[in-house]
Design goal:
Layout: H1 11-31, H2 35-48, H3 54-63, H4 70-86, H5 89-98, H6 105-117
Helix pairs in contact: 1-2, 2-3, 3-4, 3-6, 4-6
């Protein structure tokens, strides 16, 4: 979890790449049914960038009732949604065709659940 740098990339591209690496580690541990360690990797990825791991992270946190992760998963999912909606309409349309998922009923349900159960972060 100490990896901090990616060479050859800068700015948002570097952050997205680092987040993706940590998100993939979360995916690996989730597939091994080690949800606690998966949640820690997803949280680490989320601190960098709300990448494509956000919907999976939110669902896993909800499904396994990982209350310590509710606020983080909520913030990550909301930011992921904002970033998706901030893309041009044609890019969003093409992403759905190519295979990136849009907001499914499950994701909307996870978002609603986390909004109801997450403890607001202190300002």
């Amino acid at each position: 979890m100490d990896c901090t740098e990616i060479t050859g990339a800068t700015g948002q591209a570097r952050d997205d790449m680092r987040s993706s690496i940590f998100g993939l580690m979360g995916d690996a541990y989730r597939r091994e049914n080690n949800v606690q360690l998966a949640a820690q990797w997803y949280r680490r990825a989320s601190l960098i960038s709300p990448g494509s791991h956000a919907p999976v992270y939110a669902h896993m946190v909800r499904e396994h009732q990982l209350a310590d992760f509710y606020s983080d998963a909520l913030a990550t999912l909301e930011e992921h949604q904002r970033r998706c909606l901030g893309k041009p309409i044609m890019a969003r349309f093409l992403a759905r065709i190519v295979g990136s998922r849009g907001w499914t009923d499950r994701e909307k349900s996870d978002l609603e659940f986390l909004r109801q159960h997450a403890v607001p972060k202190a300002a």
